[in-house]
UniProtKB/TrEMBL annotation, chain A:
InterPro entries: Formate_DH_dsu (IPR021074)
Organism for this UniProt entry: Sphingobium cyanobacteriorum
Protein name per Swiss-Prot or TrEMBL: Formate dehydrogenase subunit delta
Lineage: Bacteria, Pseudomonadati, Pseudomonadota, Alphaproteobacteria, Sphingomonadales
Top-level taxonomic group: Bacteria
TrEMBL record, chain B:
Keywords for the protein's UniProt record, in alphabetical order: 2Fe-2S, 4Fe-4S, Iron, Iron-sulfur, Metal-binding, Oxidoreductase, Repeat
Domain 2Fe-2S ferredoxin-type, residue spans: 19-97
Residue span(s) of domain 4Fe-4S Mo/W bis-MGD-type: 238-294
Sequence ranges assigned to domain 4Fe-4S ferredoxin-type in this UniProt record: 159-190, 202-231
PANTHER family: FORMATE DEHYDROGENASE H, RESPIRATORY NITRATE REDUCTASE
Domain of life (superkingdom): Bacteria
Membrane-traversing stretches: none
Name of the protein described by the UniProt record: Formate dehydrogenase subunit alpha
EC number in record: 1.17.1.9
4Fe-4S His(Cys)3-ligated-type domain mapped to chain residues: 97-136
Enzyme class: oxidoreductase
Length: 80, 948
């Protein structure tokens, strides 16, 4: 187990940080699927509001390293 | 409904063998199922044999000797309750000799019974009194001067019923009810012969005993020995109305027995298909909150939460609500407001709230408390099976051979179903419990789990995948079922995945802390032990991998062919009374009623045509998203019906910050709950006793809720929502909830056949109920899965990000207790507090010793999110490294501790895993003191100004 200092306390997580966390969490849980990026994109499209998706796009542009490869690829699919 | 007792046939129906016998009873030829007792046979053919120790909820006992009959060709006078019918048998139930014998028996009973009928609480509702009349007893020859059992002290310790040993006839019905119906074994007959008497536990009083106050003994008692205090105080009832309990997802039906307009008692309805005549302490007794002095009966408004409330007329409150919501939308946009539906309200009310939001607010910002409990069930079962519901009815458990209980504590959370499960276990079914805690099911009288897998919180997916590993690698799967019913390629992908050595029980033992041999044995038992049934609860869903766990469970059931018939299946034990219904009714922000996505053009067109507006095709905000958007300044108004998100939702600081950032929070509730501390408008709600409607239980069973008294606040909740809707410019004209259900049926394919006349005729219907299944669907997926082929989903174990470490070395998991319900708003306002006056922190003795803590000490419980204080309960029910508490009391606010981590797919909070530290404490935390002050200030109500 890692020390708690490695983990951000959730009560100070900003909305932007939370959106990135959620996208990465979805991607991480779908990573074992054959088409993880497609499923991640589909999940975000199906359950997130348009404003949340748009904000994630902005955040991805501002912080290109914040998203995992699967989440980033999913976001590119959503943008298409 | 006028008052009449339910017919008691004396003994239960015979176990079906398919054979029948023909006999003659009092000259009448009858044909009945083999195994039927003579007593039941006589009753079914319109006769009535006197009885005292017999009742049809329990096996015959044959002790009272009042039910003697004559059988041609047999010597003596056999007891009709213990004698089964036989082919060609000739029975006489009324002869002069039998009359003499019965009078003699009754004479003995009455000789040791106080003759205070006129002043007895059960006068007119007493089987002993009735039977004395039935046998024609006119005199007692023995006198009353000898030794008797009269004058013994009453046990009045239980807050809901009294025990008067003087009136006990030692028929053992109470003892047997506790054993056979409830399964607690709290009562016994102490002493021998004349000294025999009923005793809770080892000579304790009822309150101090193991008695769980389910009321089965009171219901079984044929005299006034065990009697409800309310009957003593109010008198015997004169009318009864059948309705559905508003606690928990079991959905027990009760006879609300009234005297005039006063509720005397709630008696479980024998014909109720969910509860089969049984009850728990909450539904049976804890209804006093409905008339509690804390209820708010007048609407109130205020400009800011720092001001006291001001009582206003309904007209002003409704107009202000509409005006505020429209003002906010005008200023911040259509999507700046939303609402939360209630799993405690009816289907019809829930449907109207989501309709108000979709049609009136013009967006999909609607969510419900299932977000924080069973939303992963909806997601997981929809992905794998194709529908968001459990597969069985409760009766199914009686056909199960192996019962796998995962993350559920049914004896506390779903006690009436737990009693049936325990009955099946006593009949020989095997039990596997997967739970970090040693729950009562693991070992209790006459029930012991074959395997208890006390896994480390947060490792459900690893554990279930390891079980799958055993089933696949040892070729215990049901290939024929899989090939016929599931996608074979998806199965092989999944099988390859779970077969990898890293997913074996041995490999995951360091993660879960459970011995690999035990996991292997449990997997083998589930796969090969006959009908395997899985029951699960919030210990599955309230994790960062809640949805994955549900899918892993579905994978196991499909792999072993345990879906699509009685005795098997995947059964989520739903928490609140109508959480299934709230989900069915379109309470989620991404779907309409019947689980159809808002982006589906055809579905949207259907609703648009019915409602006459254009509907939003974008999913709306979930509750945590609403709170985030509020702190970001884009979400400004919230309508909350019958929920208390400040107490029930995780990370209280986050919830409070979100609510505080809104310009208009409207709370519709019975009480000024914790959320109302941040509200600007309060609309008084009505109780389940005060309105008509339907609830849908965990079996998908839709049952009527019937009004038994007028709403104290003036309106049923559905009427209040209609007033708000019309004030916002809609044109709703519902006169009765039946019309709302008609609209639901017209718009929801799975409810197409659900109408009030059908519910009246059938008693209940389990959806889908439509042209394809006119009588409803007790068991789902019989001929095929709803989605077509069952889908195996690869579920990789992803550890939670909530980590223990030096500062937070323990894992907190939260849950509930038998006597309380959810946030306790109802049960804390009843005598149920006698059993649980405060939340306590369960901690293992070794963890307590390490911290110098003793049982009952005040402790500080601290996580990264916050801290609170409460008293410790040192117990081995929890494993070392794990602590547990409930969230029933706002003074504790357990959710100050829980975090924002949530299920990856649904954002269901990870209540079951919070890294914490526990240390000795001298008193309440600063937060608790501040919150208590704030709550006190916020609940002030300004005195009414005198009229000029």
């Amino acid at each position: 187990m890692s020390d708690e200092s490695e983990v951000m306390s959730t009560d100070i997580m900003s909305t932007g940080d939370r959106l990135i966390y959620m996208a990465n969490q979805i991607a991480r849980n779908l990573a074992a699927q054959r088409d993880a990026d497609v499923q991640t994109a589909e999940h975000i499209r199906k359950y997130w509001t348009g404003a949340m998706r748009a904000r994630l796009q902005e955040l991805a542009a501002e912080r290109p390293d914040a998203l995992s490869p699967i989440a980033a690829q999913a976001l590119r699919r959503i943008a298409v | 409904m006028s008052f009449s007792r339910e017919t008691d046939h004396g003994t239960p129906a015979a176990i079906a063998t398919g054979k029948s016998v023909t006999l003659t009873i009092d000259g009448q030829s009858v044909t009945l199922p083999e195994g039927t007792s003579i007593m039941r046979a006589a009753s079914l053919t319109g006769g009535s044999i006197p009885k005292l120790c017999a009742t049809d909820s329990m096996d015959s006992f044959g002790s009272c000797r009042l039910c003697l009959v004559e059988v041609e060709g047999r010597n003596g006078y056999p007891a009709s309750c213990t004698t089964p019918v036989a082919e060609g048998m000739v029975v006489r139930t009324q002869t002069e000799r039998l009359k003499q014998l019965r009078r003699g028996v009754m004479e003995l009973y009455i000789s040791d019974h106080p003759l205070d009928c006129l002043t007895c609480g059960a006068n007119g509702d007493c089987e002993l009194q009735d039977q004395a009349g039935a046998v024609g007893l006119r005199d007692v020859r023995y006198g009353y001067d000898g030794a008797t059992n009269m004058g013994q002290a009453k046990d009045q310790s239980n807050p809901y019923f009294d025990f008067d040993p003087s009136k006990c006839i030692v028929c053992s019905r109470c003892v047997r009810a506790c054993e056979e119906v409830q399964g607690t074994f709290a009562l016994t007959i102490e002493g021998m012969g004349f000294d025999s008497k009923v005793s809770p536990s080892q000579g304790e009083d009822f309150l101090g005993s193991e008695c769980v106050s389910c009321g089965a003994c009171v219901q079984a008692c044929p005299t006034a020995s065990l009697i409800e205090k309310s009957v003593v105080e109010v008198g015997t009832p004169d009318r009864a109305i059948v309705t559905t309990c508003a606690y928990c997802g079991v959905g027990c039906t009760f006879r609300a027995e009234m005297r005039g307009e006063e509720l005397v008692r709630m008696v479980p309805w024998k014909d109720g298909k969910a509860n089969r005549g049984h009850s728990c302490v909450k539904g049976r007794f804890a209804w006093g909150y409905a008339q509690h002095q804390d209820r708010i009966l007048n609407p109130m408004i205020r400009a800011s939460v720092s001001e006291p409330w001001r009582e206003v007329s309904w007209e002003e409150a409704i107009a202000h609500t509409a005006s505020e919501f429209r003002r906010i939308q005008g200023k911040y946009g259509t999507r700046s407001i939303g609402g939360i539906t209630s799993s405690r309200c009816t289907n019809e009310e829930t449907f109207l709230v989501q309709k108000l939001i979709r049609q009136g607010f013009g967006n999909n910002n609607v969510d419900t408390c299932a977000r924080v409990c069973h939303s992963p069930t909806g997601y997981g079962l929809s992905q794998t099976f194709g529908t968001s519901a459990g597969t069985q009815d409760f009766d199914s458990v009686m056909q199960a051979d192996v019962i796998l209980v995962i993350g559920a504590n049914p004896t506390d959370g779903h006690p009436v179903f737990a009693s049936r499960m325990k009955k099946r276990l006593r009949q020989g079914a095997k039990l596997i419990v997967m739970d970090p805690r040693r729950t009562d099911l693991v070992k209790s009288p006459h029930v012991e789990a074959e395997h208890h897998l006390p896994l480390r919180p947060g490792t459900n997916v690893a554990m279930l995948t390891a079980m799958a590993h055993v089933i696949v690698t040892e070729k215990l799967y049901d290939e024929a079922f899989i090939r016929e019913r599931c996608d074979w390629d998806e199965f092989t992908d999944w099988a390859d995945f779970v077969s990898e050595a890293v997913r074996s029980p041995e490999a995951i033992e360091p993660l879960t802390g459970v011995k690999a041999d035990e996991v292997r044995a449990a997997a083998r038992l589930y796969a090969t032990g006959g009908n395997g049934a899985i029951y699960y609860g919030l210990g599955v869903t309230e994790h960062s991998q809640g949805s994955s766990t549900v899918m892993a469970i579905a994978n196991l059931a499909m792999a072993t062919g345990n879906v699509g018939r009685e005795g098997v299946g995947v059964n989520p034990l739903r928490g609140q009374n109508n959480v299934q219904g709230a989900c069915d009714m379109g309470s989620f922000p991404h779907e309409f009623s019947g689980y159809r996505h808002v982006s589906d053009t055809a579905t949207r067109a259907l609703f648009e045509q019915a409602w006459g507006v254009s509907l939003d095709a974008e999913p709306g905000l979930r509750i945590p998203n609403m709170l985030d958007a509020a702190t970001d300044g884009t979400f400004k108004g919230l309508f909350v019906q019958g929920e208390d998100i400040l107490q029930s939702d995780p990370n209280t600081h986050h919830v409070a910050a979100g609510l505080a950032a809104m310009e208009c929070v409207v709370v519709q509730d019975l009480f000024l709950n914790e959320t109302a501390n941040y509200a600007h408008i309060f609309l008084p709600g009505s109780t389940f006793l005060e309105k008509d409607g339907t609830f849908t239980n965990a079996e998908r069973r839709i049952q009527r809720v019937r009004q038994v008294m007028a709403p104290l606040n003036g309106y049923a909740d559905w009427e209040i929502v209609q007033l708000v809707a019309n004030a916002m410019g809609l044109d709703w004209t519902y006169d009765h909830p039946a019309q709302i259900m008609d609209e639901i049926a017209a718009l929801t394919p799975t409810f197409a056949g659900v109408h009030y006349d059908r519910l009246e005729a059938e008693g209940s219907l389990q959806w889908p109920a439509n042209d394809a299944a006119p009588d409803g669907t007790p068991t789902m997926h019989i001929d095929g899965f709803v989605r077509g082929k069952g889908k195996f989903v690869v579920t990789d174990y992803v550890p939670t990000d909530e980590k223990t470490g030096p500062r937070f070395p323990l894992l907190l998991t939260t849950g509930r207790i038998l006597s309380h319900y959810n946030v306790g708003a109802q049960t804390r306002r009843t005598a149920n507090t006698a059993w649980h006056p405060e939340d306590r922190l369960e901690i293992h003795p070794s963890d307590a010793d390490n911290r110098g803590l003793k049982d009952g000490d005040w402790v500080t419980l601290r996580s990264r999110a916050g801290e609170t204080t409460l008293r410790a309960l040192v117990t081995e029910r929890v494993a070392p490294g794990v602590v547990y508490t409930t969230f029933h009391h706002p003074e504790t606010q357990a959710n100050v501790i829980t975090t924002d981590y949530s299920d990856w797919a649904t954002n269901c909070p990870e209540y079951k895993v919070t890294a914490v530290q526990v240390m000795a404490s001298n008193g309440p935390s600063d937060w608790q003191r501040d919150y208590a002050d704030q709550a006190r200030t916020s609940r002030r109500i300004a005195p009414l100004e005198a009229a000029e």
